[in-house]
Structures are given as structure tokens and as C-alpha cells.
């Protein structure tokens, strides 16, 4: 929200937009086809994640296109296909395009995967997603090791690092990506960056939403295991023998591994638990088999994945309104992760804490609050981490195990009945840092004392402080990960501008590490769903009114070029020294050509060559006008505006004059 003064700003008065305060969260809709490849989509992802064990057990079984476990039957809109695509058959061996072929057809090339995630290639004819699925179903062994699952040591993985023989590991699983290279929408060269290594971080940095486990189900070689002896020793007693010889006959060790993988498959095959009309139901997860237990050693890689359950509403009349909730769990020897799926773009908020040994998770979407209580198999401890994936609506709650071990169960999970969010929550926080970011603004980082809290994108919290006996309240939007001083997800960073005559900001800007303060929230009416079909987004901000835009900007730029073509920030400030995050914006615009920033100064120095003045129609028309005209019936643009109340009201009137429809506008007023 805008930092428009130092009073409690609740200025819905006169606003043409229905602002309901406090409103908590957004309206989710069922995932569309675009989302079918999203790794964390509530339905697809859970299914696909859970489908993996079946593939582990029956490596040769085809992908069932009609099953919810399968991939979409039509090419994803973010895959570039050509008319020839459909006539090519999967039996053709995949041809790796040469570097020139591949990159001549590049749609976008703004940098590398590590520098800039937006770097998509035109695929060669016959290499669409559909072609890949057909190829996978052709019966050809894509694992290169006879389709027999076997553990892989990092040393062995490292040996497979050429375009003709490339393996890669993600989240503890090793895949043979040789055949996938020409089908990779980011191009083979990008994918090769992960060859021979554990590419989890690289993968997550570029496109955490991609459902790699379904896409590469037929390429699974086996688990990555750090505790393995040299592969030569495990698979062949004669350490000097050739790789091909080693793989001819399965050794006893191989057989043992294969059987135990089948066991793993059995123990994690999903059992869908339907929550009855009873208010709560307990779900106990079944243990891995003994043989699996004996095979799981103490590495810090995911060693088992759970089943999940669906939380359904209680009263029939309300059923339709309540978004479904599902969860999975996954463990390493040191951590337990509970993943809660709220639905694509559901924009969840939530918190987690450990109380008397019990892990309590609260998730709110669309005004509904659901609780998930876990009495863990063994002791868990703080700090908890809470991560939200905006595109898919997945929340990961990561807890530390007190003792390193592989658990048989995650424990007993109780899903509470959905209830209406009646009032915002209040949390006590501790100041962990306070850094001056401009001459009058301080970045205050606080951590909730009970455990991590997530504020939905575009929503805000209120700071409460007792000053001279009366309570002062002020609204702030936490700047989100990547913008504040800390990457720690349990920290909320607030950009506090000091108003000399203000009642609260002088206190807030002088707080010291260790000081306490009270927050309440979340508040706001922004619905992330509104950005579903948006390709061009404009952020019009003044001063600290930039804060609600930051998370949205990051979200939009995390989308592929087909979903986000342009993000334009028009940032109004008094002087150059007042501009928050100036370097960061410059950096992003250098890295991602879709992002443009236009600074407008009302009190610029004489040497300022940029725009001057205040918000006005000619400026908006010039910057936004042509993009808006491009829109047909359905708007593919969206404008967000936030700043002092007067700025926002004037801006809204001008935007309407620029023919921006109300559906394509959101004013952050807190
Ligand atoms: C780990 C190394 C990898 C790197 C460096 C990498 C890099 C990239 C890049 C730069 C893009 C273009 C991004 C965009 O504009 O959307 C991309 C897209 C894509 N990659 Fe990868 N990739 C890697 C691994 C994988 C794997 C293992 C898979 C799955 C099998 C995969 C599947 C995809 C898909 C489906 C897209 C299109 C995503 C979209 O449009 O949203 N990538 N990749």
C-alpha cells in the first residue's frame, strides 16, 4: 500500500473501487490448460508427483494421456509448435539441432539461464510437447540403462555430461536427458548446463513451476545417492570392466535396489482420502517397507514422499465457494516438508508454528481459513520456513528434525474444517535489522515470534504501536523476498518512510534490533487471478507506493514470455535521491528486456534528463496508450496504481480517460 502519510490510511472514501477491509485473500479458479505443466498445480502436481512411484514400479508403462496423472494432450501454449509438428512421429530418433539452427530461431534471448531466466527457443519441427509425449510412449528406452531403476552416485552422474549422453539430477532423482535435449523449450544448451550435476538449484532458479517429474518420467535412471560406493563396486565386482558389460546382467545388488524401488512405489502410491462431512479426519501415512528403510541412508536428499489428502468443505451450500486443499509431505533425513496446494493463482496467505511438539499450519485463501495439524512421528524444531509459489498456489512448510533420521510416517495429520476468516490475525514480532535505504526511508526487518507468516501478494499488514497511551496504526506492504535485506522467508521487510511530523514513523525508523512490535493482517482486496491472462502490466507508483508492486513485478517476470510480454513501472518521486530500489530496477531492466522503468521527478535537479512533473494525461497516454489500444475484446493489459491518496485518485481519473477499463485496474488503498 501507499505510504501516503503517517496516519492510519483507510481511505476507501470516494474510491471507485470496492475496497473491503479487512479482506483476506483471493479467488482461485480451477487451473487452466496453461497450467498443466506447472509443477505445483494443486491437482496435476500432486498427481504427477505421486505418479512417479508407479513409474518407478513399472518403468515401461505408457503415460496415460487421459488420466489425471498424465501430461496434457495438447501442446502447452508456452511451447512453440509449428504445423509440421503434428505429422512427425515419435519413432523418429530425436535430432539435436545444431547450435545455429537452434539459436537462429530463438524467440527471446536476453541472457543465460543463470543470469536471466527468460530465454526461450523456437523448437525444431517435430519437437513440440506432443511429440515428446509420443516419443515417450514409443516404447524406446529413454533411460539408456534398460529402464531398470538403479541408484546413481555423484561420480557416475558426473560422467554423463555430453550431448550424446547427458544425465541430470533434480531433487534426488537422476534423469537421462539426452533425448529430451531437442525438446527443451529453453534450448539444449541451457539444459546442458545441468548435465552431469545435481541441477536442482539451477532448475528452480529458471522455472520451478515446470513439472519435470512428469515430463521426464520415462527418463528416470534412479535415485542420486551420496552414500554409494563407486558404481563399479556396486554393479560389478570387477572394477575395470566396461560400462556396457556391467549392465548386461543385473547383479544381486541391482535386483535388491529394483525390488526396493518397487517397494517404495507401493508405499507411496496415493490413497485418496475423501474427507467426509465430519468436521475432521485423521490421516496416517503408511511406512516405507523394511527393505526400503534399510536402503535409505543418511543423505540430505528427499528420501520419501507421502500420500496426500483433500480437505473438503462441510456445508453443501458453501461447497462451491471453498477452494480445495491438498497436501503432500516429503522428507530428507534432517527436514520434513509439508506442501499444501491451494490452487493456481490462489494467492494464499498463511502461518506455521510449532506448539508443544505439534506443527500447526494455517492457510487462508478467498476468505477461507483451513488448518492442518501434524503430530509428528518424532520431534520437530524451529526455525520453520514457509515458501509460497504464487503461480501454483503451493505453500511449503519446512521443519527441522531434532534427530536426523528417516521417518516411517510423517505423523498424524488432522485437517480442520474450512471456516470463514472472521478477523485478521495479530502477531508479535521482533526487529532483526533496520537499514537506512534513502535519506528518509528505513528498511525494517521483523520476524514474527510464533513462526513464519506469509502475506498474500498485493496485500498488506498493519503495524500497531502504543504511543503516549494511545494506539497508532499504520499500513505497510512487506516488500517480499529479493527486495529486503534478508532472503529468510520468515522475515517481513517493511519500507518505512519517516515523516517528521508523523506520529508513528519517527518511532518505527528508530527501532533497534531486538525491539518488539505488533502486526495484524493480512488486509487487501487484490486478486492474483486477475493477472491470469495479462500480458502487459503497468505499475504506476509514487514514493513508498512502490511496495505492493514489488511482489507482483517479480511474479510477472517469473512468467514465460508468452504470458508476460512487458512490465512497465512508471515511478513518481520528488528527487532522484527519493527513488527506492533504483539500482535494483536498473539491474532488472538490464537483465530482462520485458521490464522498463520510467522515472518521473516532481522536483528534479537541472541536470535531470528524464520526465519531470506530476502524474498527467499526456504522460500516461504516451506510455500506456498504445499498449491499451492493442487490446481487443479481452483485456491483456493491467494497471496497478499506488501512492498517496491524492495521487491515486488523480491517477484513477486519468487512467479512465485513457480508456482503461475498471476490470483492468487495481488501486492499492490501505
Ligand atoms: C537444469 C537445467 C535447465 C536450465 C538451465 C533450463 C533453462 C531453461 C530456460 C532458459 C528456459 C526458457 C525460460 C522461459 O522463457 O520460459 C526453459 C524453459 C523450459 N524448460 Fe528448462 N532448463 C533446465 C532444465 C529443464 C528440465 C529438466 C525440464 C523438464 C523436463 C525443463 C523444461 C522446460 C520447459 C517445459 C520450459 C518452458 C517453460 C515455460 O515456458 O514456462 N527444463 N528452460
From TrEMBL:
Phylogenetic classification of the source organism: Eukaryota, Metazoa, Ecdysozoa, Arthropoda, Hexapoda
GO-annotated biological processes: superoxide metabolic process
Record keywords: Heme, Iron, Metal-binding, Oxidoreductase
Ranges of compositional bias, category Polar residues: 38-57
Biased composition (Low complexity): 58-77
Annotated Cytochrome b5 heme-binding domain residues: 149-225
Region Disordered, annotated ranges: 1-99
GO cellular component: endoplasmic reticulum
Domain FAD-binding FR-type: 424-529
Highest taxon of the lineage: Eukaryota
GO molecular function: cytochrome-b5 reductase activity, acting on NAD(P)H; heme binding; metal ion binding
Protein family: Belongs to the flavoprotein pyridine nucleotide cytochrome reductase family.
Protein name, per record: Cytochrome-b5 reductase
Amino acid at each position: 500500500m501507499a505510504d501516503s502519510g503517517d496516519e492510519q490510511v483507510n481511505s476507501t472514501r470516494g474510491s471507485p473501487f470496492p475496497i473491503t477491509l479487512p479482506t483476506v485473500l483471493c479467488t482461485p479458479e480451477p487451473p487452466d490448460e496453461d497450467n498443466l505443466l506447472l509443477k505445483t498445480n494443486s491437482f496435476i502436481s500432486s498427481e504427477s508427483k505421486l505418479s512417479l512411484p508407479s513409474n518407478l514400479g513399472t518403468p515401461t508403462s505408457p503415460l496415460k494421456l487421459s488420466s489425471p496423472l498424465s501430461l496434457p494432450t495438447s501442446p502447452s501454449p508456452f511451447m512453440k509448435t509449428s504445423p509440421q509438428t503434428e505429422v512427425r512421429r515419435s519413432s523418429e530418433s530425436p535430432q539435436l539441432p545444431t547450435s545455429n539452427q537452434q539459436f537462429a530461431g530463438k524467440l527471446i534471448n536476453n541472457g543465460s539461464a543463470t543470469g536471466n531466466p527468460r530465454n526461450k527457443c523456437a523448437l525444431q519441427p517435430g519437437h513440440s510437447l506432443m511429440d515428446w509425449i509420443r516419443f515417450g510412449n514409443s516404447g524406446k528406452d529413454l533411460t539408456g540403462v534398460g529402464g531398470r531403476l538403479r541408484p546413481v552416485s555423484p561420480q557416475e552422474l558426473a560422467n554423463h555430461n555430453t550431448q550424446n549422453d547427458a544425465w541430470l539430477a533434480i531433487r534426488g532423482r537422476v534423469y537421462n536427458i539426452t533425448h529430451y535435449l531437442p525438446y527443451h523449450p529453453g534450448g539444449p544448451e541451457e539444459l546442458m548446463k545441468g548435465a552431469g550435476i545435481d541441477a536442482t538449484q539451477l532448475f528452480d532458479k529458471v522455472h520451478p513451476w515446470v513439472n519435470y517429474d512428469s515430463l521426464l518420467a520415462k527418463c528416470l535412471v534412479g535415485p542420486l545417492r551420496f552414500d554409494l560406493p563407486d558404481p563399479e563396486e556396486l554393479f560389478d565386482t570387477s572394477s575395470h570392466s566396461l560400462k556396457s558389460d556391467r549392465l548386461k546382467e543385473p547383479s544381486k545388488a541391482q535386483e535388491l535396489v529394483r525390488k526396493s524401488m518397487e517397494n517404495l512405489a507401493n508405499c507411496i502410491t496415493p490413497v485418496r482420502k475423501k474427507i467426509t462431512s465430519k468436521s475432521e479426519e485423521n490421516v496416517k501415512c503408511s511406512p516405507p517397507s523394511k527393505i526400503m528403510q534399510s536402503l535409505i541412508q543418511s543423505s540430505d536428499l528427499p528420501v520419501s514422499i507421502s500420500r496426500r489428502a483433500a480437505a473438503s468443505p462441510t456445508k453443501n451450500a458453501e461447497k462451491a465457494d471453498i477452494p480445495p486443499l491438498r497436501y503432500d509431505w516429503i522428507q530428507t533425513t534432517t527436514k520434513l516438508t509439508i506442501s499444501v496446494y491451494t490452487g493456481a493463482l490462489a494467492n494464499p496467505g498463511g502461518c506455521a508454528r510449532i506448539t508443544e511438539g505439534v506443527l500447526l499450519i494455517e492457510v487462508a485463501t478467498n476468505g477461507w481459513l483451513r488448518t492442518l495439524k501434524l503430530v509428528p512421528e518424532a520431534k520437530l524444531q524451529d526455525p520453520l520456513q514457509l515458501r509460497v509459489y504464487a503461480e501454483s498456489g503451493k505453500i511449503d512448510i519446512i521443519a527441522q528434525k531434532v534427530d536426523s533420521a528417516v521417518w516411517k510416517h510423517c505423523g498424524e495429520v488432522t485437517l480442520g474444517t474450512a471456516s470463514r476468516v472472521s478477523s485478521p490475525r495479530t502477531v508479535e514480532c521482533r526487529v532483526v535489522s533496520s537499514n537506512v535505504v534513502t535519506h528518509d526511508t528505513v528498511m525494517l526487518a521483523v520476524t514474527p515470534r510464533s513462526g513464519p507468516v506469509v502475506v498474500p501478494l498485493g496485500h498488506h499488514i498493519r503495524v500497531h504501536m502504543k504511543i503516549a497511551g494511545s494506539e497508532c496504526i499504520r499500513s505497510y506492504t512487506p516488500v517480499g523476498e529479493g527486495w529486503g535485506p534478508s532472503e529468510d522467508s520468515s522475515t517481513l521487510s517493511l519500507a518505512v518512510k519517516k515523516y517528521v511530523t508523523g506520529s508513528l514513523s519517527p518511532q518505527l525508523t528508530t527501532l533497534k534490533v531486538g525491539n518488539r512490535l505488533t502486526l495484524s493482517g493480512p488486509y487487501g482486496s487484490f486478486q492474483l487471478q486477475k493477472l491470469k491472462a495479462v500480458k502487459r502490466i503497468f505499475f504506476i507508483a509514487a514514493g513508498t507506493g512502490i511496495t505492493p508492486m514489488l511482489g507482483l513485478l517479480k511474479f510477472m517476470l517469473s512468467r514465460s514470455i508468452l504470458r508476460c510480454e512487458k512490465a512497465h513501472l512508471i515511478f513518481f518521486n520528488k528527487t532522484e535521491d527519493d527513488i527506492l530500489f533504483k539500482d535494483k530496477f536498473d539491474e532488472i531492466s538490464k537483465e530482462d528486456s520485458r521490464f522498463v522503468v520510467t522515472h518521473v521527478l516532481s522536483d528534479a535537479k537541472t541536470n535531470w534528463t528524464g520526465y519531470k512533473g506530476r502524474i498527467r494525461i499526456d504522460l500516461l497516454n504516451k506510455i500506456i496508450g498504445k499498449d491499451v489500444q492493442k487490446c481487443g475484446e479481452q483485456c491483456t493489459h493491467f494497471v496497478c496504481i499506488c501512492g498517496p491518496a491524492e495521487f491515486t485518485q488523480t491517477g484513477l481519473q486519468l487512467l479512465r480517460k485513457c480508456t482503461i477499463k475498471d476490470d483492468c485496474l487495481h488501486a492499492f488503498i490501505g
